[in-house]
Amino acid sequence: MEQIGWKVGGRQGEGIDSTGDIYAIALHRMGYYVFTYRHFMSLIKGGHTNYKIRASNQVVRHHGDDVHVLVAFDQATINHNWHEVVDGGVIIYDSAVFAAEKPTDRPVNVFGIPLTELAKEAGNSIMKNMVAIGVSAAITRLSLEDFLPVIEEKFGKKGQAVVENNMTALRLGYEYFLARHQVFFPAPQLPPSVKGKGRLYAAGNQAVGFGALAGGCRMVAAYPITPATEILYWLFKYFPKHGGVVVQAEDEIAAVNMAIGANFAGVRAMTSTSGPGFSLMMEALGLSGMSETPLVIIDVQRGGPSTGLPTKTEQSDLNEAVYGTHGDIERIVLTPRTVEECFLATADAFNLAERYQCPVIVMSDLYMGMSSQSIDSFPTHLVQIDRGKLVLDEELVGRATHEYARYEAQIEDGISPRTLPGQKNGRHVALGNEHNGIGLEIEDVSTRLEQVAKRKRKLANFTHHSGVSIDGSAVAPLALIGFGSTWGVLEEARERLEAEGMLVKHIHFSRVLPFPLEDFKTAMSGVDKGLVIELNSSGQLAQLIHNFAGFHGKLASGLKFDGDPISLREILLRAQQVFRMEVRN
Amino acid sequence: MATMQDFKTEKATWCPGCGDFSVLNAMQKAAVNLGLEPENIAVVSGIGCSGKMSQHFGGYGFHSLHGRSLPTAQAVKIANRDLTVFAAGGDGDGYGIGMGHFVHAMRRNVNITYIVMDNHIYGLTTGQASPTSDLGSKTKTSPQGTVEQPISPLQLALAQNCSFIAQGFSGNVKQLISLIEKAVRHKGFSLVNVYSPCVTFNKVNTYEFYREGLINLDEDDSYDVTNRFAAMQKVTETNSLVTGLIYQDESRASYEDSVHGYPEIPIVKTEWHLTDTDYEEILASFK
Questions:
Q1: What is the model's pLDDT at position A27?
Q2: With DSSP H G I counted as helix, E B as strand and the rest as coil, what are the percentages for chain B, rounded to 5?
Q3: Less Cβ around it within 10 Å: N or C end of chain B?
Q4: At A149, which helix (H) or strand (E)?
Q5: What is this model's ipTM?
Q6: Contacts of A143 (CB under 8 A, 6+ apart)
Q7: CB contacts, 8 Å: A222 with chain B
Q8: Which CATH number is B84's domain given?
Q9: Other Cβ atoms closer than 10 A to B135
Q10: Nearest CB neighbour to B270, from listed A218, A253, A426
Q11: Rounded to whole angstroms, what are the CA distances from B279 to A203, A238, B282?
């Protein structure tokens, strides 16, 4: 694959994010597939932050292991990142600000460029970021003209002079570098037809917001939390036009109960959060299950437990999503694999929540939620709105009583017709106490058993998409197994292992509850060894598979929990350990 | 027109003589007087003796979690602004575990009515100290007497500039009916704190205690319900032993009338399908 890896780093508050955004969007608009990753810390000023871009003329599904060009605004950026720079790669640093200590044991080109000086020449030292982009464009032989529309978009509001100054800064960096050095990494050739093809640039968080809007959600209650808050930012932009409301709740307990309240009143509602907030929602998760009130929770996972690693990625909320809350409830847990699936899974979650009248948890993570990337399209044509068993006003006319038996235990599929407040003759009480068919709290044995059995029937005949995807050879004896956001990097790992001559398939969960047992068993047929790759320290997915499907002795784990997204190299290393052993045996 | 009968359900399960019967009765009577229909009322309750209200009142009900009636009730109203929404709770539910939501509900000013049956004790769990228990109250969890200062709901509400504050007493149903009617008519968040004696576990704050001690501000022509500072002074000097409309600010817009883009028609009745034009516009923003 022809590709280029670029990274810019500096102190937080130095404009690293906006530098990365401009470069990434420009590359995206030129027709490259880009995949970005933001490394940041839980503070506003200071600390090391960086922004990685991987660009290619083919689809890229993760942020890539390699850096070809590293732009360093401080020494810390070099120290933290130089090991990612490829042999022959380029590090440029701001020689107007510091003298870089160069890593001596690697064949890496280190060039001091007076970024701040050149920025001053263009009008203001603040534009050192633009100078750096100009230098990067020179190193990778990109056309400066392609940056103009992005700069106009970004700075146009501040006036034409600001746009021109930024273009000047860009040009000064470009010319300064080429006057002294050569092009090191020509950017991959693009087919001439690719420009203006209408590809999209999105991250999982925006995709979730879009999915919610498309899926009919019109009320979101949430408490700000990294890395989920961007979902709200997107919705604040689009909800008002479509009659939706975002409520900033006082805490996550309020948020989830608000989502339940709105659903009870008939409006599709959700809450979005991350691990700590999700933990606060556990009691209400049970209320949704017990009162059979639809509920959608988006959990954008981060490093746990407790406050954990608030700005780092992890997949360690799986147990909580699957087993959390006291007592037994029916629930659905979706684990979308891509940004496109974040959109569709969220839209669909509202159908599932209303159809099965239970909580639906959609699990994303920081890596998928915050990594903007190029995608071909959103599957908007697949969005449907199915409200399940809502009772029509006509069906309630002429009833002898205004009481409505909401929880009749005898109903065959366990799913009761639902009336909404405001409907005449549909009066009922939804409740978290165990109850009888008409919604009065009970404590007698037979009613309790009837109602538990009724609720259990709801998901017994669950029909939906399979929940497990299989890529690669159906008869492969080796399998990479994962869930959620690791699909992209695992796909690349599978392709690499196949290129090395291993017969490997890739089994990936896009839903873990109801557990797709038959589909998973089918996927595992002929597999001698499965390597379960997940971002937590206890192997939560592997345990879940053991719990539901067995396969003890056939699975090995590849675990990552240092906060960084897993790299292709790490997966390959672990796969070679596990699979080579298997091949030798 | 709905009658009392329309708001009745099965017989309530409170102890004979419980103040909560009067509160239920007053809510039903107020609903009749206001010309409301049962299907257009939602009563959301928390947990405790007061929590039974959603089952005993003949409208739609949601018997939610301990302390969480307010978030749930606010969302019901936000989802369907045509409904009359009551949140019902007690002093433990609302001023203990759910206290945070109370303060924020006053900030938010969603147009709902919050009725708190304040008996200074945890009744359903058979008599533990509550956040409003008088200092020194001897209960199962304070055998030597409570040492924490009691919460003052009225002072708290005044400090937070709650847009409607009233206090009633189960021993004066007539006044309570009128307070609830006013609270429902108020366009914003309305608090009706009700001294609702627990006849089983609180032998101090009894009907007699309140009959002797309460001052009825509704009968005081000189009392100005729009003067928050005077209200704070009155409540403070009487140790909250007052009934009536304490404070009302009719100038404040409700949450529904303030939020950008909040529709005139109930959200539950709005169109949820995006059109092709909507999709095109949104997709363009991702390019």
A1: 95
A2: 40, 20, 45
A3: N
A4: helix A148-155
A5: 0.98
A6: A30, A137
A7: none
A8: 3.40.50.970
A9: 10
A10: A218
A11: 17, 11, 5
